[in-house]
């Protein structure tokens, strides 16, 4: 009996053990089945259901990136204030260099202008003036008006004499007479010689030319015995068309070139002497050296000593 009971107990124990195993098997079975069902899962992947799963998985992945992109785009959309995109523009070096070049040129021109003004503040070297102790016509004229000096006290009283002498039939250089050759001031004829950059081929009447000096003109003369045709052409380029200047031959003046304004004169035997141009630049319409300021140079006479039947007016 005991043997049967024990065998029954064992039998029962085996049965319970079997049930227990079967109870535990469901927990382990899905693992085995999932491992074992990979093949069936693969088979299902080719089916409709896996296709949805496959569609969802990429959708999630692409959906996330699409969301991120759209959120960035949404920030810069019309409904939101987006951050301004700053693009660095290259520096316009061409324009900068152009303006810099213009500035340099402008400074150079200003410097040149300042130099010219400074250079004209003093008369050229080597000029002979007839004002004695006075610097120019303005100073000696003021001294006369103030009673500080009389004409008799001056070394060259003719520098302040401006009487228009009566004209006569004498059209030679002896009408009137002058102390300097060519004349540089003094009493003169009533008509001035046209001095609008005028170049005369023959000698002109002194009395008319001196009247032009009174108006602020510069008279350039040359000795025809010393200056040839090329030299005459070279000198005429300095005068031709330049207002308040005139040029004519002056026989027997003794030097190649002489330039004169009222009360001053410069003479040279060098046609290329730079002082000729300096004299012109300094004395044309010089306010301190013009006996009759603002008087015209146009509308005068064009008479030469060779013009028969033409008489200087005065």
TrEMBL record:
It comes from Glycomyces artemisiae. Residues 34-66 have a biased composition (Low complexity). Residues 21-31 have a biased composition (Basic and acidic residues). The keyword Phosphoprotein does not apply. The chain crosses the membrane at residues 93-118. Keywords: Membrane, Transmembrane, Transmembrane helix. The keyword Lipoprotein does not apply. Pfam families: DUF3105 (PF11303). Residues 1-87, 165-186 are annotated as: Disordered. Residues 173-184 have a biased composition (Polar residues). This is Uncharacterized protein DUF3105.
